[in-house]
Write a structure and sequence with these properties.
The protein contains 17 helices and 21 strands. It is an alpha/beta fold and 492 residues long. The protein folds into 3 domains: 188 residues, FAD/NAD(P)-binding domain, CATH 3.50.50.60; 95 residues, no CATH class; 105 residues, Polyamine Oxidase, Chain A, domain 2 (Alpha-Beta Complex), CATH 3.90.660.20. The strands form 5 sheets. Strands 1, 2, 9, 10, 11, 12, 13 and 19 form an 8-stranded mixed β-sheet that branches. The chain has a 7-stranded mixed β-sheet with strand order 7-6-15-16-17-14-18, with helices on both faces. A hairpin with a 6-residue loop joins strand 20 and strand 21.
């Protein structure tokens, strides 16, 4: 049995950020990670025959200076500045994303463009009051017609359900600050550099940083630093349960090689699995709420092929309904060092699915054949160009934002907070928030500050999608991109 101050479940961006910052403060930590080799979670870098690839594509861009500074601290000489290039494939044509107004007008055709504008005007004049789902929210921003062209098919591929069943929270987070007007203005008017990053709409950024060997390089370095500072990172150790002793206020975490006793537990594990495995058990109502939480899985068909330089996009959104692929990553455009042979290219065809469904259970050979067929159908390459391939599956890539998710999360969260004061939830799956890695890191940063202070200075649930901390106090809501100037509103 091992003892430590803080046990951390998961070596993804949230878990490792917390471990690193606590270790710098000389707080003993033990990180417990199920993967036997790779850290970084969904932000890891996988490899096949020397080809590196990202699990979903991870831009390193944040409105938070603290997050950007931490990235620079960890990889001061290995971050590339990369141009952002992405497009939408629809009806056999490619559309720049973000929107370029003249291009869209020409490719959609005059009549369709007029109908889109009229549809947008109708939505602005007669918006849906208090939109509840993605269809209503996006229609309010872009109009029904553009919603059908540029949002509906892709979104339903990602989530495997109707846009009417997906909470408007998801769209409000992922497309925050963007409307048809801002997209057109951004496309037509000369770009002015914003005074600071807080004014940037993330959807419209035109460049980002990226580790030259992929995002896993960041988290491998972070894990190494944790070890250098005296922390422990246990790989290939799946957590099988954890129990809390109210009399001693200590946790016992059970994992592959034994048990770890800790004063605090930081969990980035899926909140559904955490609720099921914790002792003393949660009330049945909370367990039922946890069981209602859903996750969307996905897999990447990695294809290695001759580089005919047909496109330079970092990724392409596939809105075409007659192919299953949802998005295509071009790893060479993320970083040339991801591909060892300059004469070759490496593409990642992403298929969104549920664990156990027909796509998930296909064997790798059939999935590679499907990827080659769909790549040719889209017109990005021929099947003969492909010389090799592999498949990577990702469990619980996306917490599902269905119409009941918020209430279910709140029920579980409330019970956990009431019963286990030294249990801290961080990160995407730990908080059931479909966020980016900078958001996950910010929750970990605040969590580390709380533990070092010995009291809850910050409410982690007030970190928003832009990794900004929103305060709630007597003067009303405020926000800040950084942490330095945040008043300690939650101090005892």
């Amino acid at each position: 049995m091992q003892t430590t101050k803080v046990a951390i479940i998961g070596a993804g961006p949230a878990g490792l950020t917390a471990a690193y910052l606590l270790s710098k403060e000389k707080v003993p930590v033990t990180v417990i990670e199920a993967d036997p080799r790779l850290v970084g979670g969904i932000a890891r870098t996988a490899s096949y025959k020397g080809y590196n690839f990202d699990i979903g594509g991870h831009r390193f861009f944040s409105k938070s200076k603290e997050v950007e500074d931490l990235w620079t601290e960890l990889l001061p000489n290995d971050m590339l500045d990369r141009p952002r290039l992405s497009r939408i494939f629809y009806r056999g044509k490619f559309f720049s994303y973000p929107l370029k107004a003249v291009e869209a007008l020409l490719k959609l055709g005059f009549i369709e463009s007029v109908l889109c504008v009229l549809s947008y005007l109708e939505a602005r004049l007669f918006p849906v009051k208090n939109p509840k789902n993605v269809e209503e929210w996006v229609t309010n921003q872009f109009g029904k017609r553009l919603y059908g062209i540029f949002f509906k098919t892709y979104t339903e591929k990602v989530w495997g359900m109707s846009c009417r069943e997906i909470s408007a929270d998801w769209a409000a987070q992922r497309i925050k600050g963007l409307s048809l007007v801002t997209a057109v203005v951004n496309a037509v008017l000369p770009k002015r550099k914003p005074k600071d990053k807080s004014q940037v709409i993330k959807t419209l950024i035109d460049s980002f940083r990226y580790p030259r060997k992929g995002p896993g390089m960041m988290w491998e370095t972070c894990a190494a630093r944790v070890r250098e500072l005296g922390g422990i990172v246990r790989m290939g150790e799946r957590v099988t349960g954890l129990s809390y002793d109210p009399s001693t206020k200590l946790w016992t975490v059970r994992h592959g090689s034994g048990t770890t006793v800790a004063e605090h537990v930081i969990s980035s594990a899926p909140i559904r699995e955490l609720a099921r495995g914790i002792q003393p058990p949660l009330p049945q109502a909370a367990l039922d709420a946890a069981n209602r939480l859903k996750y969307r899985d996905f897999l990447t068909v990695v294809l290695i092929l001759k580089d005919k330089q047909l496109f330079d996009d970092n990724w392409i959104y596939i809105h075409e309904p007659d192919v299953l692929v949802g998005r295509i990553q071009n790893f060479k455009s993320w970083s040339p060092e991801m591909v060892p042979d300059p004469a070759m290219a490496c593409l990642g065809l992403e298929y969104f699915c549920f664990e156990g469904d027909g796509t998930w259970t296909m064997n790798d050979e059939d999935l590679i054949a499907l990827g080659k067929k769909e790549l040719a159908k889209i017109g990005l390459a021929t099947a003969e160009d492909v010389v090799d391939g592999c498949v990577v599956r990702q469990h619980k890539a996306y917490p599902v934002y269905d119409d009941g998710y918020a209430q279910n999360v709140e029920i579980v969260r409330r019970e956990l907070a009431a019963r286990y004061p030294n249990l801290h939830l961080v990160g995407r799956n730990g908080m059931h928030k479909y966020n980016n890695q900078d958001h996950a890191m910010m929750t970990a940063m605040l969590c580390a500050k709380n533990i070092v202070a010995g009291k809850p200075l910050y409410d982690l649930w007030q970190v928003n999608q832009d990794a900004e901390y929103h305060e709630a106090g007597g003067r009303g809501a405020e926000s800040t991109t950084g942490l330095r100037d945040v008043p300690k509103r939650l101090s005892a």
